Amino acid sequence: MKIKGMHHVSAITANAKDNFHFYTEILGMRLVKKTVNQDDTSMYHLFYADETGNPGTDLTFFEIPNAGTTYPGVGSISSTSLRVPNNAALDYWKERFTEHNVDHDDIAVQGERKIIRFRDPEKQRLILVSDEENNGIAGGKVWKHSTVPAEKGIIGLGPAKLTVRKAEPTVDILTKLLTFKQIGSYPSEVTDQPDILVFSTGDGGTGAEVHLEVRKDLPQERPGRGSVHHVAFRVEDKEELTKWKDRLEEIKLPNSGMVERFYFRSLYFRDSNGILFELATDGPGFVTDEEFEHLGESLALPPYLENQRKKIEARIKPLETKRSH
Fold first, then answer.
1. What whole-number distance in Å separates Cα of residue 50 and Cα of residue 324?
2. What are the domain boundaries of the chain?
3. Which CATH number fits domain 6-315: 2.60.40.2150, 1.20.1250.20, 3.10.180.10, 3.40.50.2000?
4. Which residues belong to any copy of the VOC domain (predicted)?
5. What is the pLDDT of residue 168?
């Protein structure tokens, strides 16, 4: 039983059309799946990733049109990192963000890596992180039709930052239940707050880390548009996921049980800080029901929702995602 690294991060948007424009046209990611939230089919679920949606490259969004403003705080997945190939790519992105009026900070250092913090139009808290020093899990492959050059493009998810009031419950989940180990720390940007702890799993590197921030000075986060719903970690297959389910039941940690998502299988649970974790299998993947060349162009529904297609399509706004070039 081994957690291999990041699988995906799922966040909230209030506007699928604007979200699609930002993540594909500005960030150059590929929409690899346009589907619906299987727990509430009245909302889109959009998956942006590398060329095929390899595990560890997916940033996904639920569209909740009436989602309110996010009030940042503890009990949250407070930033999502996106990997770029090297430090030179950050120079490119700094210019690109200025050109496209993207709210961003200057190039900075986080631990031993160079980064740029930035926000999408809904104030989603994002970080570009350089893979120049990466000796762990390899990144994905930029889609050939990306709006960003392949040598500069986003190649996967970097560390997820969790912000909590008390470290111990989340440290226990990461190190005693899952297979993370603390490998270091770096100073908080906030005066008089503890160092941010760095945890790594699997083969390590940029795509296999969680950063844990303790903040005594913040209220509980009130999520809305621009917030993160959950973070998912990779497990090999269904057999291994079953072992994780058995382990959660053994320690009496409430969980969802095995959930069929068609493109992967999942298992959900929370720690006592309120962080929602998911374990997800590496496969079957997104080319299961669409050809590689046409991923994300049509509304894809798993077989068990196909008989509801007319009803589902009537409840969601049309979203044009076919390539025009």
1. 19
2. 6-315
3. 3.10.180.10
4. 5-131, 156-282
5. 97
